[in-house]
Amino acid sequence: MGSKKISKYILLGSLTASSFLAGTYFERKNRSQLKKQIYNLPALPIFGTVSAATAFSPAPVESNVSRCSQIMKYGFPGLDNVRSFDDFVLSYDRRNRVAHWVFEHLTVDNVKKNDAVDRSKCEFKPDESIHKFFRSDNSDYKGSGYDRGHLAAAGNHKFSQKHIEQTFFLSNMAPQVGVGFNRHSWNRLEKHVRKLTKVYPNVYCCTGPLYLPRKEANGKNYVKYEVIGANHVAVPTHFYKVVVGETLDGRLEMEAYVMPNQVIDDDVPLTSFQVPPESIERAAGLLFFDNISRNKISKINGKKNL
């Protein structure tokens, strides 16, 4: 499959050819003010007070607060049903039973091989911090033909056994085509992000699903996606990753990718899936790294940000 054919599936690339409009600027400004107010409120999940399989507690867990602040250094893409784990943070979409986004902060230390960590001991399990009406279950995936695909990749969290085990909560999963996508091209992208830790001391990665429109025979655009299992877990049409690398001298460089949730030829280069980050923002209804003025990012997708 050539890159020209692949581009047909990357519908986002054509969503916008321009930079942020004034409306986007004001939306970022308003959200920044809102978050300042929210940070002063007690007992919110963004402070680490809710983690998977634990009861809600109004008392913040200090170590988790510190790590959450580190992961979310450059801003929250959205503030809907945020859950903080020990080494990643996610926003959960209760309607679709799949996260809106998952955020990670990667360094050489938390992705390097660790003999004390054994992935084979990890088990996929429901996230009981989410109400039973809205969470997914292993039975939803059984016989569906889809993998339980990680959003925060297990390979990104090798610092401790607890960290990697938390990536197996189903709130961190989405239905993904297995052979040809989750186990191949998507895995290539995950490995690429890990390799960036050899280039940048700090790598910030946001991953999530997209449900993109497609033109039908009648000429109209429709958003159509499959749901699986008794809980009607949504099958995303595409997945995105938006990554920011921070250099030792404080420079920031961004990469943004969208891949269709389908079989992809391994010969197709990852660069074929790079898109303008603002096109993902518009399609997902999120604002990535909004604590950073976009003109402070020196490179986007390998090109100087003018």
Please explain how this structure is put together:
- The protein has 306 residues and is α+β, with helices and mostly antiparallel strands.
- It has one domain (3-304): Extracellular Endonuclease, Chain A, CATH 3.40.570.
- 24% of the residues lie in helices and 23% in strands.
- The protein has helices at 3-9, 22-39, 62-71, 108-111, 138-141, 161-166, 178-182, 185-195, 277-284; strands spanning 82-84, 88-93, 98-106, 146-150, 173-177, 202-210, 214-215, 221-222, 227-228, 233-234, 238-246, 252-260, 297-300, 303-304.
- The strands form four sheets. Strands 1-2-3-6-11-12-13-14 form an eight-stranded mixed β-sheet, sandwiched between helices.
- The longest helix is centred in the N-terminal third of the chain and has 18 residues, at 22-39.
- The radius of gyration is 19 Å and the shape is globular.
- It starts with a helix and ends with a strand.
Question: How would you briefly describe this protein structure?
Answer:
The chain is α+β, with helices and mostly antiparallel strands and 306 residues long. It contains nine helices and 14 strands.
Q: Give the termini separation.
A: 33 Å
Top CATH class: Alpha Beta
Low-confidence stretches: 8-26, 34-62
Q: Averaged pLDDT, please?
A: 85
Strand order of the largest sheet: 1-2-3-6-11-12-13-14
Task: Give the proportion of residues in helices.
Answer: 10-25%
Shape: globular
Strand percentage, roughly? 15-25%
Estimated structural class: alpha+beta
CATH superfamily: Extracellular Endonuclease, subunit A
